[in-house]
Write a structure and sequence with these properties.
The protein has about 80 residues and is mostly helical. It is about 70% helix and about 0% strand.
């Protein structure tokens, strides 16, 4: 058990930049997926993780900034949204 200790991850500048890009992409996916779900609900329809994950695969093929992010990070974002 960790008690009161603070741990710090020392990243190189390149690693820190990549981590920021991953975080930004996850934030964009969260916001877009949330808005898509709200839009569906306004129409009386429903969309969830599985369909959005399928669409995410397609989006990664279209957008280089998404393609560089590990898929499991973006999938976990959709799971967290659920």
């Amino acid at each position: 058990m960790l008690t009161g200790r603070k741990y710090r991850l020392d990243l190189t500048p390149g690693q820190a930049e990549f981590a920021e890009r991953i975080g930004g992409a996850c934030r964009s996916v969260w916001n877009a997926a949330l808005e898509q779900r709200r839009s569906y609900r306004r129409r009386g329809a429903w969309i969830g993780y599985h369909e959005q994950a399928r669409q995410l695969v397609e989006a990664k093929g279209e957008f280089e900034w998404l393609a560089e992010v590990p898929g499991h990070c973006l999938q976990q974002t959709l799971i967290d949204l659920d």
